[in-house]
Amino acid sequence: IGRRWSSDCDNVGFLYLRGGDTTSGDIHEELRITNELTAHEQVRVAVEEECAGIEKLVDAYGRVHVASVPGNHGRTTLKPTQKLYAGTNYDTMIAKMLEDRFRGDQRVTWQTSASGDVVVPVLGWQIMLTHGDRIGSRGGQGFIGPVATIVRGLKKLRDQQSEMGRPVDIVLHGHFHTTANPGRDDLANGAVVGYNEYAHGLRARPEVPMQWMFLLHERWGMRERCPVKLEDPTPVPRPKAPRAFPTLSK
Questions:
Q1: Is the pTM of the predicted complex or chain greater than 0.70?
Q2: Residue 180: DSSP 8-state
Q3: pLDDT single digits (tens) 162-187
Q4: Where would I find the H helices in the chain?
Q5: Cα angle value 231/236/239 (rounded, 5°)
Q6: Whole-number Å distance between alpha carbons of 54 and 102
């Protein structure tokens, strides 16, 4: 997809955005029971898989910049904390281990956040990456779903950043397991895990595992965007209609 999009451009590299929740973690008792691997084993698997992926991106694009923020599932504390938010998170540990693997490789550069946010300047555009659990808005179980919550949170986030003298052009986040384009150039990311028991319990709309990919252009900004489906959608089974209405007996 990337090569096709950039065929009319001078592509300068690939921006790999690690938005958090790389591991399922131990934040709920049920996860400790049902996770296929322990959190420490998940870290090891994630490092190996992401190393292979980054190597493929380097081969394809020549240069890769990796920006990373922690998610709520990777925390090692019983409850969410404000202090040491990133330093006590498996996502940060994985990012640091990846940095160690590619130490000395000038083709790969890194931004591993010491907080929950990171701002990446690309071609004159300011991209903010945050996981989504700390955008200042919660909820999203009404008929409209999480999109209203996301819009409220993005408004608060942009206002805060502007007041601090660092306005952002694009905000990217995940957390809500919902693929959406709630603003002109803001993207809410889907989830690799796809539809599961948690989403079913919320009566959320089923969505296949999905991740955003976009082309950032020096002049036009986010020129093209595409939610990449990571597996074939399963057809919804529909019951066959009876040939005739059944006869009702008294």
A1: yes
A2: B
A3: 999 999 999 999 998 889 998 889 99
A4: 2-5, 29-34, 39-61, 90-101, 147-163, 197-201
A5: 160
A6: 9
